Amino acid sequence: MASPILLSGLLALFFTAALASDPSPLQDFCVADTNSQVLLNGFGCKDPKMVNASDFSSNGLHITGNTSNPVGSRVTPMTATQIPGLNSLDISLVRIDYAPWGINPPHSHPRATEILTVLEGSLEVGFVTSNPQNRLITKVLQKGDVFVFPIGLIHYQRNVGNGNAFAIAVLSSQNPGVITIANSVFGSKPHIPSDILVKAFQVDNNVVNYIQSNF
Ligand SMILES: *[C@@H]1O[C@H](CO)[C@@H](O)[C@H](O)[C@H]1NC(C)=O
Ligand SMILES: *[C@@H]1O[C@H](CO)[C@@H](O)[C@H](O)[C@H]1NC(C)=O
């Protein structure tokens, strides 16, 4: 008879496997039908007979993103929203452009591991492990270098060169989601009560109000 500990271990394994990525497809494809009124995990499917190559295709990823913004970077997504044929297929990609010294600010993807390759310039990248270690794992990448950001962990990139940089990153979900830490914590609508942030960040109320006012 399986011990309760073994059983709970197996259950944990099962649920980890079941929840760590998008569900597996049960058919060749399920091209997103964005007009469907059916609510489900992902998008409803177009009639497969009505599908053609344009459902599996997009363009414009050679175009440099506009980095004229306070962080100096731009993410151009190619997820199931842009490519309907990606629906149910557990994968997507983004182009990321960086102005000189621009950053892609600390953020996490609740539904995807990311693998990034630098196609131009040099990037300092890093992610932080979960509690209690909170260890920063960081490296400077050159053109052609590849780096992995494990699912859910907070990570960032910075262009450490004087020229523009860009990268392509592949993500293990049709819809990875993005939680930008600063925006979520200091820019929520409505704001998280400032006394909570005062204790969480161990700073003055003025500091919290000041940061909140910038988002
Ligand atoms: C695919 O079908 C759409 C209409 O559903 C049509 O507008 C488009 O031109 C077709 N594309 C190709 C590549 O055949
Ligand atoms: C880039 O974005 C800035 C700020 O939103 C805007 O003023 C500028 O016109 C944009 N440049 C291009 C080429 O679209």
Write the layout of secondary structure elements.
Layout: H1 4-19, E1 73-78, E2 92-98, E3 103-108, E4 114-120, E5 123-128, E6 136-141, E7 146-149, E8 154-159, E9 165-171, E10 179-180, H2 181-186, H3 194-201, H4 205-213
Antiparallel strand pairs: 1-2, 2-9, 3-8, 3-10, 4-7, 4-9, 5-6, 5-8
Helix pairs in contact: 3-4
The chain binds 2-acetamido-2-deoxy-beta-D-glucopyranose (2 copies).
Index terms:
215 residues; alpha+beta; Jelly Rolls; 5-stranded antiparallel beta sheet; 4 helices; 27% strand; globular; binds 2-acetamido-2-deoxy-beta-D-glucopyranose; manganese
Plain-language structure description:
With 215 residues, the chain is of the alpha+beta class. The protein is 18% helix and 27% strand. The protein is built from four helices and ten strands; from the N terminus they run αββββββββββααα. It has helices spanning 4-19, 181-186, 194-201, 205-213, and strands at residues 73-78, 92-98, 103-108, 114-120, 123-128, 136-141, 146-149, 154-159, 165-171, 179-180. The relative contact order is 0.15. The model is unreliable at 9-18 (pLDDT under 50). Residues 52-54 line the site of one 2-acetamido-2-deoxy-beta-D-glucopyranose (NAG). Oxalate binds at residues 104, 109, 114. This is Germin-like protein.
